[in-house]
């Protein structure tokens, strides 16, 4: 028997004075209207932006993808500039958005959390991991040539590949967790594009949540310093080649004390997952409601969207 139940998107939110609706008849009375660009075919599919609307109403564009992959339903010719003069607020994973919705966050532990952590350390022992390196990929492409990097890396070190790009499988991909990844010391958190602040569940869940050290390909070194736990990750751009990275991973595997240094951050920080995959929470509607309560109410329009969101400026050349 299947039981359906309604979730409250504002249950763990700092505010709860918003009402969520999918009824387009309420378009003219809403305080905010959210548009998911990933599922927007073209500008003509939106309500007429020239139609009268409340002066306080905010049109918000949402994308969880990097600038290389903002549009999927649109044609290859669809550009951000097609939507100039329409949106008032942005909702993306980047911290300079009007409404930031990152896939995960690094938070300082509270005093009580530190005390609880000390108690858990006294009572238990961290699980030993038996396997070395894994990656789970179903899209073998990527603007950053990530798969070419993986193939070169595999010439120097064993890499277990899960998903359509390899011969190992886990049930589900986003809907269901992959427990087999718990056994690995390192996880290749290789995104499908090297873009500013682009860090997805690959690092937050498949690496940090599972107690692995993430090997980052995606966000810049500077972004990782700002957004990830200190000294908790390895970045491909610190290495001259996949062979050089492979030698370093093998060195860490043979040096337990050096490997364990990547977990010292846990004494003072924690990682929270907020991407919605694998039953983790998602706070997009909450963050929108908070923005309506707390953001600057002054009028604002993105008249030149490409100045805010553009692959030629916000993304980088491949490392390989």
TrEMBL record:
Q: What is its main location?
A: Golgi
Q: Which domain of life is it from?
A: Eukaryota
Glycosyltransferase keyword on record: yes
List the Gene Ontology MF annotations in alphabetical order. Answer: fucosyltransferase activity
Topology in the membrane?
Answer: Single-pass type II membrane protein
Q: What is its EC number?
A: 2.4.1.-
Q: Where in the cell is it found?
A: Golgi apparatus, Golgi stack membrane
Fucosyltransferase N-terminal domain location, by residue?
10-102
Domain named Fucosyltransferase C-terminal is located at 128-307
Query: What keywords sit in the KW lines?
Result: Glycoprotein, Glycosyltransferase, Golgi apparatus, Membrane, Signal-anchor, Transferase, Transmembrane, Transmembrane helix
Database matches in InterPro entries = Glyco_tran_10_C, Glyco_tran_10_N, Glyco_trans_10, GT10-like_C_sf
**In this record, what's one Pfam family?**
Glyco_tran_10_N
UniProt pathway: Protein modification; protein glycosylation
Q: Does the keyword Transmembrane apply?
A: yes
One GO cellular component, as annotated = Golgi cisterna membrane
Report the family membership.
Belongs to the glycosyltransferase 10 family.
UniProt name for this protein: Fucosyltransferase
Q: Tell me the lineage of the source organism.
A: Eukaryota, Metazoa, Ecdysozoa, Arthropoda, Hexapoda
């Amino acid at each position: 028997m299947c039981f359906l139940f309604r979730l409250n998107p504002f249950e763990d939110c700092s505010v709860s004075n918003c009402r969520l609706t999918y009824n387009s008849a309420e378009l003219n009375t809403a305080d905010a209207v959210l548009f998911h660009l990933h599922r927007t075919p073209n500008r003509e599919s939106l309500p007429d932006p020239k139609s009268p609307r409340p002066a306080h109403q905010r049109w918000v564009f949402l994308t969880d993808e990097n600038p290389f992959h903002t549009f999927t339903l649109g044609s290859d010719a669809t550009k951000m500039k097609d939507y100039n003069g329409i949106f008032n607020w942005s909702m993306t994973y980047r911290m300079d958005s009007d409404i930031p919705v990152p896939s995960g966050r690094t938070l300082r532990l509270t005093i009580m959390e530190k005390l609880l952590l000390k108690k858990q350390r006294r009572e238990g022992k961290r699980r030993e991991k038996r396997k070395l390196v894994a990656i789970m990929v179903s899209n073998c492409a990527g603007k950053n040539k990530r798969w070419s990097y993986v193939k070169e890396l595999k010439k120097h070190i064993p890499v277990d590949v899960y998903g359509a790009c390899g011969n190992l499988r886990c049930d589900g991909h986003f809907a269901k967790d992959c427990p087999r990844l718990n056994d690995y010391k390192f996880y290749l958190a290789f995104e499908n594009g090297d873009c500013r602040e682009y860090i997805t569940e690959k690092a937050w869940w498949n690496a940090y949540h599972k107690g692995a050290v993430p090997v980052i390909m995606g966000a810049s070194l500077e972004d990782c310093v700002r957004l990830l736990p200190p000294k908790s990750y390895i970045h491909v751009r610190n290495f001259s080649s996949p062979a050089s990275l492979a030698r370093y991973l093998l060195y860490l595997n043979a040096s337990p004390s050096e490997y364990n240094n990547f977990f010292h951050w846990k004494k003072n920080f924690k990682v929270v997952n907020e991407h919605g995959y694998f039953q983790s929470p998602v706070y997009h509607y909450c963050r929108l409601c908070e923005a309506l309560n707390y953001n600057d109410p002054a009028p604002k329009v993105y008249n030149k969207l490409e100045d805010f969101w553009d692959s030629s400026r916000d993304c980088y050349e491949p490392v390989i």
